[in-house]
Structures are given as C-alpha cells and as structure tokens.
Design goal:
Shape: globular
Bound molecules: iron/sulfur cluster
Oligomer: single chain
Helix content: 25-40%
Distance between the termini: 23 Å
Radius of gyration: 20 Å
Number of strands: 9
Low-confidence stretches: none
Order of helices and strands: EHEHEHEHHEHEHHEEEHHHH
Mean pLDDT: 94
Length: about 350
C-alpha cells in the first residue's frame, strides 16, 4: 500500500495558499521510533513510502535512517529548496520526486516567496545528474496562474519528466469571490487551449508529460473505471508525526480523518476504511473522474454546494475537451505517431491525483 510519512509539520517556506509551518499542530515532530515504523510495515509485502511534510527534507537524517532500515519503494514530495543536499546514493533510490513549483518565475515567487523559483530550478538541475526516476513539477493553480503559460513554461525548462497541477480549492470556498469566478472561466478556456497544443505537438511526435491529460486520456481510451485516483482511504494512507494514521495527509489534526495508529493497527485493517459520498458516489462521470478528492467530498460543507459545483465544473470541462480530442489521438496511435503506452500514466500511484 501507499503511505505518506509526515516527517515534520514544519516548513521552510510560507506559501500564500498553505501558510507554511502548522503552528497549531499538536505533534509537529515525529514521536514514533523507526523500529515501531518497521514493525508496522513488516505486515505489508509492498509498501510505498512517500516522504511528506511540512517540508520532509528538514528531517534529512530521519529520512536517511528510514531508507537505510526499511525496505520499500520510496518517493519524495518536496518544495525543492534543500533537494540539492540529498546525497546521490539516496537520490538514486527514489522512484519519483515531486517538486513544488508554480510556473513562471514571477508566479512561483508571488505564491512561494522571493527567489524561490531560482533556487528550486537550480536545485533540480543539480539533482538531474544523479536522479533518473520520474521528476515531476507539481503546481498549484491559483489567481495569478495562467494555466497555458505556466504549464508550458515548466515543460519547456526541459528538466521535468512530467508536470502536474492542482487547483487551489480555497478559491472556491462558499462559491468564491468575483475574481475567483472570473479566474475559473479563464482557467477553463486555458484548458481548452492547452489540450489543443498538447494534441498538435503530439502530432509532431512530442509527447508532453502533462499528467492530467495523460491519465484521463488513458482512462477514456480503455473505458476502465479509474477509482479514486489518489487512493485515499482505499489503498493510500498517511502516517502523522504522532504515529496516528489518517486517510490522507491534509490536515491530520482533524479527528474524522483518523483511522488508526502504527502502534495498534495493521496495514490490512486499513483498506477501504473511507469511501466517497454523493454527489460523486452517484455521478455518471465517476468512472473517469474517480471522485476528485475524498477529503473535500467528506468535508464538503466547507466549500459549500456552490464551491463543490465549481470544482466539479472544471473536471467536466477537462474531461469534455479530452473526449473531443479522442478521435484524433486514436488516429495518432493507429498511425504509429505515438504509442498507446504513453497514456498508461501513472502506472503506479505516484502521488499525482491526476484530476486537478
Ligand atoms: S465529476 Fe464532479 S461529481 Fe462527478 S465524480 Fe467528479 S467531482 Fe464528483
Ligand atoms: S486528492 Fe484529496 S483525498 Fe486525495 S490525497 Fe489529496 S487531499 Fe487527500
């Protein structure tokens, strides 16, 4: 199964959409021993451990000890500021590294702090020499984002294998502001443009590694139901610094998210402990959407009906645009311009939720 390990609740940045270190966190630092973690994971034949935070690289030594002592597939979810300090021998062991970066320099720095873009890009360039797994740029799309320009910028840097983005859900709280509603219309128009660019470039033989487009097209081509793409509550869980287990790494302090503890639970008891409710559970698009986000689904009174509808409208728009592009994509596969296999992404849960 897939586990997020929150190595700390502290962060060395304070991004506008997150706020950084969770000052209210009751358990900011890890309170269980590596031995306790190893004992818990011993009952899982194929654990995938994703270092997560806060910023996990603030606890580099603990990360190294865990990697030394526990056999697992490893992934890292980082803000990139300290990535260049990870020793090559550890870097090489990661299957996937997800680096938070929001697009063009001015957009990244506006959300994440002055100088962050330059430091992160320089860090990524340095690790590229040693890391040959999947390096993913992970964007948050918020009011300053031009989805076309920011995604293309990151892709054209040529240092990332894939680009993935997430909407800043806070924009939609209670139906959002006028500015948020305006931005949403521009975002959807941008998605239409980006799908066109993606298909055109594919016609020229360039497969742009845009995670939402690849993953959703893969499902549309096979018609095989996707399931909740992040796996939360089904096969993906989160171990908070106290040792408590929650179904997802977001806000582990909420009691409704707690489903066990590494000291008292076993991995097999965790499977399928949380499931989607309406409107996703009975939605006609569930097979391709997967239900977007279990956390928002269970706490939807926070975004409200209108907010939920806004998030959902982006999914419907994106799926509609890719559905429209499908005949052209099929033809490219049949003519051998692209291999069908490129749409089988991600092949394993790699911490990309696929649907933004
Ligand atoms: S399209 Fe909307 S309602 Fe349907 S499963 Fe996705 S998020 Fe839920
Ligand atoms: S998509 Fe939602 S439920 Fe899934 S891991 Fe992210 S925040 Fe949690």
């Amino acid at each position: 199964m897939h586990y997020h390990l929150l190595l700390t609740q502290r962060c060395n940045l304070a991004c506008t959409y997150c706020g950084g270190t969770r000052e209210e966190a009751k358990h900011p630092e890890v309170e269980y021993s590596v031995e306790e973690l190893r004992t818990f994971l011993a009952a899982d034949p194929e654990p995938v451990l994703v270092f997560y935070g806060g910023e996990p690289l603030l606890r580099m030594e603990l990360m190294e000890r865990i990697m030394d002592e526990i056999p697992a597939t490893y992934m890292l979810h980082t803000n990139g500021m300290l990535l260049h300090r990870v020793k090559p021998s550890y870097l090489r062991r990661f299957h996937t590294i997800l680096v938070s970066i929001d697009g063009r320099p001015e957009v990244t720095d506006a959300y994440r702090g002055r100088g962050v873009y330059r430091r992160v890009v320089s860090s990524v360039r340095r690790v590229r020499r040693h890391f040959h797994g999947d390096l993913i740029a992970r964007m948050v799309a918020s009011l300053r984002t031009s989805i076309v320009e920011d995604v293309l910028h990151l892709w054209e840097l040529g240092i990332f294998d894939h680009v993935h983005w997430q909407l800043d859900f806070e924009l939609f709280w209670d139906g959002g502001s006028d500015a948020a509603r305006r931005w949403l219309r521009e975002y959807n128009a941008g998605i239409s443009t980006l799908v066109r660019v993606w298909v055109e470039r594919m016609g020229e033989g360039e497969v742009m590694g845009l995670v939402p487009f690849l993953g959703i097209t893969g499902t549309l081509l096979t018609r095989r139901p996707a399931g909740l793409r992040c796996g939360a509550g089904y096969e993906s869980f989160s171990i908070s610094p106290s040792g408590d287990i929650t179904f997802c790494p977001v806000t582990p302090e909420y009691e409704f998210m707690r489903i066990g503890s590494i000291r008292t639970s076993s991995p097999s008891e965790l499977r399928n402990t949380a499931s989607l409710r309406d409107p996703c559970a009975s939605c006609e698009l569930l097979w391709v959407c997967g239900g977007r986000c279990l956390f928002i689904n269970l706490a939807k009174e926070w975004v409200g009906e209108r907010g939920y509808g806004m998030i959902c409208s982006t999914v419907r728009h994106l799926v509609g645009e890719l559905e429209r592009a499908l005949p052209e994509l099929r033809e490219l596969v049949e003519r051998g311009v692209v291999e069908e296999g490129v749409f089988r992404y991600p092949e394993v849960n790699n911490d990309c939720e696929v649907v933004p």
